[in-house]
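Hi R.,

Here's the input for the alpha-D-galactopyranose complex you asked about:
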Amino acid sequence: MKKIICIIATMLACSGLQAQKWEKVGDRPQMGWSTWNKFAGNINEDIIRGIADAMVETGLAEAGYTYINIDDCWHGKRDKDGFIQADPKRFASGIKSLADYVHDKNLKLGIYSDAGTGTCAGMPGSFGHEYQDALQYARWGVDYLKEDWCNTTNINPIGAYQLMSDALREAGRPIFLSMCEWGGNEPWKWASEIGHSWRIGPDIWCCFDSTRVHEGGWTDIGVMQCIRKNEKLRRYAGPGHWNDPDMLEVGNGMAANEDRAHFTMWCMMASPLILGNDIRSMSEETKAIVMNKEMIAVDQDELGVQGLHYCDEQGLEFWFKPLSGGDWAMTMLNATLAPITYELNWQRFNLTDEEVSRLSTAFDKTVYKVRNLWTHKDEGKTLLKDKVWKKVTVPSHDVVTYRLSPIAK
Ligand code: GLA
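And here is the predicted structure with alpha-D-galactopyranose in place:
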């Protein structure tokens, strides 16, 4: 008995050494915008203010996009006491004034640092300054931190991210921690108690299905490559801790059907929806994609289950995501180069999500109302019979997505 008490006391004492991450932050996948995909390091405070204005004016804020994230290159130098300062030219009025500006619009501000000695663009990293940086962000009114992984030779990733998590907790302001370790150390296995999301792979680039290798040897990956990595990790995601296949490239140059497929798949995978286009000048086509509220509801569904890549048939991928209230989202993704016409028989998809939710589609017992989430039209009901329901054509690099809602008997 004495021994057991001793072990419990030791466990409590040890766990007391580590602060908990901020709870109730990131209960749904984070939604917002980031500077990086469109502007890379060419950023300044006018862009941030303009984006905050556009977020409200376009209706994006109302659709759920909340965080305005300043990625790499906002930094100036550390002051004589080691506190980081914003670049005095490009962010002359300072981060606090930007935070006030976005808070006035009911939005939130995100910032970027790196667990190593320098950021990927060579700005000062947080290594050795974690508590000071967290304190500075909290004083400024920052709500979100993306912590990158460049220049980290000999640094232990679990320790490094735990340290920043503890520092953010101590600083006293609820701050979302977005870990950007690129998946090399399998953060999905250890990060769920440390931060709120973790990157699962290298940087995305604006291409549907190919990779790009840089001179230095690092590789950017396309939409399909992000999906291939993320689909294996669904069991690790859930409310407060999400797999992050990287920020969106919608509106940055892919064809509209590819943008639609990209956005849909991020929603099916309960991924963070961080826009990466210039929302001050979006086309109507782009707006219709990123503001598809029925699709966003799939991403933000309170069950928080990452969708399942159930099977492939005749070149189509079949994806299912259980939703609250017995609903399901179902996507047919055509990643091939030609359109595919498929005879859809619901009885082929009687599945149970054994890995995560344990929920079953039970198309043999339940009739569902079928709503097309891109045409926004109801398309009738599923059939209990083993019979073709409809011929559906899915264009190349595109999707057809339905929301299925059980009809009360
Ligand atoms: C890394 C990250 C990117 C971006 C850049 C900034 O490559 O993965 O998302 O933050 O650094 O330099």
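One thing worth noting: The radius of gyration is 22 Å.

Cheers,
M.
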